[in-house]
TrEMBL record:
It comes from the Bacteria. Keywords: Membrane, Transmembrane, Transmembrane helix. The chain crosses the membrane at residues 21-39, 59-86, 95-119, 146-166. This is DUF4386 family protein. The keyword Transmembrane applies.
Length: 222
C-alpha cells in the first residue's frame, strides 16, 4: 500500500501566496486610521470624561478589532513584504532587521492595547459607580512598568518602520511607497503625543503607499 503523496509547493506558488499576503498591509493601515477617529480624553485633566469614554462599546471594539487584531494583520503584512522582497533578490540585511523590529514593536504594543481594552473600562466603571480608588488604580496601572513597555515597543516599531520602509524604497518601482511607509508610521506614532489630528492623515497616506506596494508586488515585478 502506497503512502499518500505529500503535497508540494513550487517556488512560484509560494511567491504568489506571499505576494497576496502584502495586501494585509493596507488593511492594517485602514484599521490604524479607524482606531484614531476619536481621541481619548486626558485622565490627568478630566477623569470624568475619560471614564465616560473608556466605558463605551466603541472604545472596546476599537481596541479589540482595530488595535489588537490589527497588530496581527500588520505582522502578516510585514512578514509577507519582507519575504517577497528578499525572494526577489533585494538586499536582505536591512529588510530582515526592519521586519524583526516591526514585529517586536507590534507584539510589545499589544500589551498596551490589552490594558486599554480590559483594564481601562473596569477602572472607568468603578469611577462612575463612585468608587474613590479608581483614580489611584488608574495611576498604578499606568505606572513606570507600563510606560517602559510603551516606550520600548514604540521605539522598536518606529525603527522597524524606518528600516523596512527605506529598504523597500531601494526596490525598483517602490521608492515613493517605501519612503511614505517609513515617514507615515513614524509621524503616526509621534503625532499621538503631539498633534493627534495628524494620525488619521498619516494612516490614509500609509494606506495609499501600501496599496501601491501590494499592487506592484502582485504584478510580478519588484
Amino acid at each position: 500500500m502506497h503512502a499518500p503523496a505529500t503535497p508540494t509547493f513550487s517556488a512560484t506558488t509560494v511567491h504568489t501566496m506571499l505576494s497576496r499576503g502584502v495586501w494585509a498591509l493596507p488593511v492594517y493601515a485602514v484599521l490604524l486610521g479607524l482606531s484614531t477617529l476619536t481621541q481619548q480624553p486626558d485622565y490627568a485633566t478630566d477623569f470624568e470624561a475619560y471614564a465616560a469614554y473608556v466605558t463605551t462599546n466603541t472604545f472596546l471594539v476599537s481596541h479589540l478589532v482595530a488595535s489588537i487584531a490589527g497588530a496581527a494583520v500588520g505582522i502578516v503584512g510585514v512578514v509577507s513584504l519582507a519575504a517577497v522582497l528578499i525572494g526577489s533578490g533585494a538586499r536582505s540585511g536591512r529588510i530582515l532587521i526592519g521586519a524583526v523590529l516591526s514585529i517586536a514593536g507590534n507584539v510589545a504594543n499589544t500589551a498596551l492595547f490589552g490594558v486599554a481594552a480590559f483594564a481601562q473600562p473596569a477602572i472607568g466603571r468603578a469611577y462612575r459607580a463612585g468608587e474613590e480608588y479608581a483614580v489611584a488604580l488608574n495611576a498604578d496601572v499606568y505606572g513606570p512598568e507600563l510606560i517602559a513597555t510603551a516606550v520600548t515597543g514604540l521605539a522598536l516599531f518606529i525603527a522597524g518602520a524606518v528600516l523596512l520602509g527605506t529598504a523597500t524604497a531601494r526596490v525598483d518601482g517602490l521608492r515613493a511607497s517605501g519612503i511614505t511607509y517609513a515617514a507615515s508610521l513614524t509621524i503616526f506614532v509621534v503625532a499621538n503625543f503631539t498633534i493627534p489630528i495628524l494620525q488619521p492623515v498619516m494612516a490614509a497616506a500609509l494606506t495609499i503607499a501600501t496599496l501601491a506596494m501590494a499592487r506592484r508586488l502582485n504584478q510580478g515585478g519588484s
